[in-house]
């Protein structure tokens, strides 16, 4: 009798998606971009971070960028993979694994997309959040706070030109603590992270402050704090 291989088992796979936490510093605080989630079992009072499924012919990185652009109309200066969230019950619609991303932008303006509502919220005062996106946001904020100490990731949150005071306030806002002005500036120059532009910026009646820019606007490891 001829031997035939056993029929293959039916494979059941999880659906793969991306979710991106886009952060910006505005109005004196760290803010996250959220979209209205209006699909069962969530009501219109729920919000979530921009995201969606990964197409068969795109990478997770490509999917994250596409969803930010198409659904939120958002631009960003930096994006990196954050963590994979795979709890069995994270999505009530079925088995969905999310590759989460952290993105940063100095801009809070977003292009309006028909049929979607997008808004910035303070990370300390979030509305009702759908799925496990509250945990994803918390993880992203912790990552940002941690990386401020040992990378130049702050470039993703500042305009091309800025004052040293603005850079220090950015750190203090995100870390929620004071930073010694003298030591902070000394470290910036020692590491050759910023360079003067020979331009000045006037704020109110105070003396004009010199404008600086990052020597490189690419992510790298540097011991700042």
UniProtKB/TrEMBL annotation:
Domain Nudix hydrolase residue range list: 8-144
InterPro entries registered for this protein in UniProt: NUDIX_hydrolase-like_dom_sf, NUDIX_hydrolase_dom, WH-like_DNA-bd_sf, WH_DNA-bd_sf, WHD_NrtR
SUPFAM superfamilies tied to this protein: Nudix (SSF55811), Winged helix' DNA-binding domain (SSF46785)
The name this protein goes by in its record: Nudix hydrolase domain-containing protein
Species assigned in the record: Candidatus Sungbacteria bacterium RIFCSPLOWO2_01_FULL_60_25
């Amino acid at each position: 009798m001829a031997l035939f291989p056993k029929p293959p088992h039916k494979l059941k796979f999880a659906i793969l998606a991306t979710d991106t936490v886009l952060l910006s510093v505005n109005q004196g605080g760290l803010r996250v971009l959220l979209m209205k989630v209006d699909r069962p079992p969530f009501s219109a009072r729920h919000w979530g971070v921009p995201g969606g499924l990964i197409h068969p012919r795109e990478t997770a990185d490509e999917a994250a960028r596409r969803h930010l652009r198409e659904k939120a109309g958002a631009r960003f200066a930096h994006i990196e993979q954050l963590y994979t969230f795979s709890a069995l019950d994270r999505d009530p619609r079925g088995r969905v694994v999310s590759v989460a991303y952290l993105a940063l932008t100095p801009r809070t303006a977003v292009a309006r997309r028909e049929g979607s509502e997008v808004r910035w919220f303070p990370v300390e005062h979030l509305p009702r959040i759908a799925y496990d996106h509250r945990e994803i946001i918390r993880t992203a904020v912790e990552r940002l706070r941690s990386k401020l100490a040992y990378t130049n990731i702050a470039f993703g949150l500042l305009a091309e030109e800025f004052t040293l005071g603005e850079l220090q306030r950015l750190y203090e806002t995100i870390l929620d603590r004071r930073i010694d002005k003298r030591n902070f500036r000394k470290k910036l120059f020692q590491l050759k992270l910023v360079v003067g532009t020979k331009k000045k910026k006037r704020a109110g009646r105070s003396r004009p402050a010199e404008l600086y820019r990052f020597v490189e606007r690419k992510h790298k490891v540097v011991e700042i704090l």
